Amino acid sequence: MKEFEGYQYKEKGICAPQGFRANGLNCGLNPVKEKNDLCLLVSDRECDTAAVYTQNKVKGAPILITKKHLFASNGKAQAVIANSKNANTCNHDGEEKAEQMCVLAAKALGIQTEKVLVASTGVIGQVLPIEPIEAAIPELVKGLSYDGNEKAVQAIMTTDTIPKQVAVEFVAEGKTVRIGGMAKGSGMIHPNMATTLNFITTDLAITSDLIQKALQEVVAVTYNCLSIDGDTSTNDMVCVMANGMAENKKITEENQAYQMFKQGLYIVMMNLTRMLAKDGEGATKLLECICSGAPDWNTAITVAKSVIVSPLFKCAMFGEDANWGRILCAVGNAKAEFAIDLVEVKLCSSAGELLVCQDGSGVAFSEEFAQTVLKEDEIQILIDLKQGEAAATAWGCDLTYDYVKINGDYRS
Amino acid sequence: MKEFEGYQYKEKGICAPQGFRANGLNCGLNPVKEKNDLCLLVSDRECDTAAVYTQNKVKGAPILITKKHLFASNGKAQAVIANSKNANTCNHDGEEKAEQMCVLAAKALGIQTEKVLVASTGVIGQVLPIEPIEAAIPELVKGLSYDGNEKAVQAIMTTDTIPKQVAVEFVAEGKTVRIGGMAKGSGMIHPNMATTLNFITTDLAITSDLIQKALQEVVAVTYNCLSIDGDTSTNDMVCVMANGMAENKKITEENQAYQMFKQGLYIVMMNLTRMLAKDGEGATKLLECICSGAPDWNTAITVAKSVIVSPLFKCAMFGEDANWGRILCAVGNAKAEFAIDLVEVKLCSSAGELLVCQDGSGVAFSEEFAQTVLKEDEIQILIDLKQGEAAATAWGCDLTYDYVKINGDYRS
In this structure, are residues A222 and A207 in contact, taking their beta carbons and an 8 Å threshold? Predict the structure, then answer.
């Protein structure tokens, strides 16, 4: 993971900040008993909280209930309950069931219902049975622990092959503070939303308005620059909970400490984004497309995303084929205004850097060296438009047989 | 093929209208000697001609030359030369080579260079060798015939598995006229352009301005409603050539005969579009998404296209899985304004019709019957928004292992 001055990576994900307990277990939604399907995250103190949600017109019932609760509580929350295997979306009784999940958790924890947030992921349009969740609540609460992050992150995984957790430590207002996060998701992921389920905790003291501001800015350059398959899910959500237990002077304006927090949030979310891309459904390679030399950031990110979503380019990367014409084709398809005949394209990995296109036309290169570069499992595509100073990064993965396999046979 | 009153389907594709000769052969661009890679289409008389081109910022050199020639000749053309295996795009000498192809054909045919149009398809960014084309021209011209459409259509195929040709006959201004067409393309195909290489001939007499008008209107509801993989090619082109040999009173205004022509053009292009979708790279199924009950056509087509491009939905169709939640997710992602909670979704095929979603929520259905419906190779997805009278159709195909295979290993 890339190092940033003033920040140290830590273990324990969402449980890295002080005062956050978590747990996860199998309640029976998933017939595979070894696979957790329900988790609970609880803070010792009430948290200033902010969230962003999917932009799909179809919104999962848990999204609607979480929004309602955060509105009612004026941005305060203390717990999150989440399940996998069933998205509780497009069901007649979806909101009722999502609310019930919060009621059950609130009662067991002795807190107000509107201080509980809820999230679900899984198949759309199947009625969520509440009984197994209800039956599991006592054990779920009993098992809460300050290092329960592993069990919790297992519970939100669906087609994920690895759990995704990050935590960083830094100093703000003279206090050591931490930000931790966990994320799930490897399919139905696309720019322009708050992608996948993402829970972020911190022991910093900061207002929910400032969390919201930082979150929206960081989402724009991290999760929203990620695409696995162009599909925006109905249940995507990122929430950030700050319990203030680091005892710093509460951040109420955009001062130096706010900047430190925002950068910490960026580090956590950028790393989770890379993990999501690398573990995209069926993926064998992380693709990182950096567009520089653009007249403005919007142009840069539009070009970078256009490349990262191209199925033909993604297949070529799976085949380790330096078919750069497909990159230029995708650049040309970007809905932005720029000159195409200045463009330079390089393919990079830990094995080296390969120039494939200059001034919009191909240059001779060694196919052997190209294969050496593309054999690696993290590939950077550097696109220099040569007409400005702005740059942006988009993340994605290759398109493989396994993506088709996983998604040709998902429900069963 | 669907029947239309007043129109009969005919054999011979581009050679169905009077006075069009064609030929195709292998000149050596394709090392497989049995595979044609170069074709020529010639009209006995000069044609009123119109064309539409790719909207990709990267435009193949042949596109630039064809545009230039049609501009210089004021919409008159008499021949088309086209090759596969090499797109002649993103090369320093691309325009020079494309012009040379026209010069060579014009000389051999004894016509002006600007009356020759040119098209190329294949790998981007590899220099096009002109020598094999030059050497093949005498044989190509010598072999021109009034039923050379089969040889010609073979020459424009790339990853296509079947040739795509259609012709219809109808009466306009008291004369029997014909429209014929051929198309290629099964990858790098996406809405919002003139997709793939498409050549359409007619013996009708009509001005090039009116051809252009009809072409643009028909492209909007046929090729531009097609998506195989979301990638817009650099070399797409549709051209329509009218040689007037049916001897009808020349159509110079939007009268009844113009409407007959436009409808004929629609029948030819709609059928070619369906053929392109069904033969999409790796496809096992034609998917036809019909969105009705929309407030306006733009909303309808936006919804239909959003479904047809969704990789998750496309994989589910490959897996013959009635995972309608993915359809609703794609509907919700459509960039249009409408209420989601009225939506009804049905899956249809020759085996029957299955209701899966009503009022935006799932309904119980027989999985066994669903499998019977989805086993067929042409599937219709009927989406009724229940909030208006407008309807639109988009065409696509399933996403399969073979798509990945074909595109993971294309250049070699």
Answer: no
